[in-house]
Specification:
globular; Rossmann fold; disordered C terminus; 12 helices; 337 residues; alpha/beta; 34% helix; seven-stranded parallel beta sheet
Length: 337
């Protein structure tokens, strides 16, 4: 590596979406770039080896876990630029303690994920997968389906994705109730939704959709008591993170028909194991964490992740999730958990 060239690594491009793209070319112009397209970044020791002495890491996949151990073993690392919004694979406190800035690319996948959430709502309500399968088996089913016009949509989370879901729900004639983690009632009203409490949404919504960032305070956001409040005709949609809903409580609610069904794009363990009980439930429509996988999202998100690197190198990072703590490494962790 030349002395005046910054070292950049993509340690986790598996399955590969980065290598050979325009984003790859732009990153190459910024420094000495190494891209790993082989499986293995889910192993801590291998992730550490791949990062090595790099100053910047572009994080593609959530299976690469940036832990305290990783940050301590990679003392030259100064930036993790995340392709996507979720940063639950990164120990943010550890990043700050160890002098690392973490940035993400919010909003890039908003339209695609919101469309997918709407698709899951409709697929469950109209029983599209089950009807398709029955017809392929020689049947001609005649049954009553769920109409969403005039029904109530409850949206948890009013970031870019949740806001777009509000618009789509209103567009098909649903009344929309919204809950903001920040208590931002004015934002909900500005979107044409009515602000409501968590309990009111669960009691009254015909469709509940989750668009919250996974954090300690939102893990298990929906538990047994929450599912017990929901209508037996209600549909749950989750395109956020699997852990937003307690796994056992969700399985129980679906098995015992405490709710009508669910449309899920995210799970507690990914990929799902063949014996996962969720696969045996007929009232669930599943997709493999693919809501944001469109050519447009991949192209724009990767370009944005690289653009963030360029901006960081100029000394003014944007889309910052966490910045280095005032106390540089390797001082004690006073007051940080």
């Amino acid at each position: 590596m030349k002395p005046d060239r910054v070292s950049i690594v993509v340690p986790d491009d598996f399955p590969s979406v980065f290598k050979g793209t325009e984003a790859h070319q732009r990153a190459t112009a910024l420094g000495d770039l190494t891209v790993f397209i082989e499986r293995g970044a889910d192993q801590e020791e291998e992730l550490i080896r791949r990062i090595g002495r790099a100053r910047i890491a572009i994080n593609i996949r959530a299976h690469a876990k940036f832990t305290e151990s990783v940050f301590r073993a990679c003392p030259t690392l100064k930036l993790v630029s995340v392709w996507g919004t979720g940063v639950d694979n990164i120990d943010l406190h550890a990043a700050g303690r160890n002098g690392v800035t973490v940035c993400n690319t919010p909003g890039i996948n908003a339209n695609a994920v919101a469309e997918h959430a709407l698709t899951l709502m409709l697929a469950v309500a109209r029983r599209v997968p089950a009807l398709d399968q029955a017809m392929r088996g020689g049947q001609w089913p005649r049954e009553l389906l769920t109409q969403l016009l005039g029904k109530t949509l409850g949206v948890f989370g009013l970031g870019t994705i949740g806001s777009r879901v509000v618009a789509l729900g209103r567009a098909i004639g649903m009344e929309v109730l919204a809950w903001s983690a920040r208590g931002d009632s004015s934002r909900a009203r500005g979107l044409g939704a009515r602000p409501a409490s968590k309990e009111e949404i669960l009691r009254t919504a015909d469709v509940v959709t989750l668009h919250l960032r996974l954090a300690p305070e939102t893990r298990g956001f929906l538990g047994r008591k929450d599912f017990a409040l929901m209508k037996p005709t209600a549909i749950l949609v989750n395109t956020g993170r699997g852990a937003l809903a307690d796994r056992e409580a969700l399985l129980e609610a679906l098995r015992e028909r405490k709710i009508l069904g669910a449309g899920l794009d995210v799970f507690h363990e990914e990929p799902l194991k063949p014996a996962d009980p969720i696969l045996a439930l007929p009232n669930v429509v599943l997709s493999p964490h693919i809501a944001g996988q469109t050519p447009e999202v991949i192209r724009d998100g990767l370009l944005r992740a690289v653009e963030i690197v360029a901006i960081f190198l100029k000394g003014s990072p944007t889309d910052v999730v966490v910045q280095p703590s005032p106390s540089p490494r390797p001082l004690p962790r006073r007051g940080r958990g």
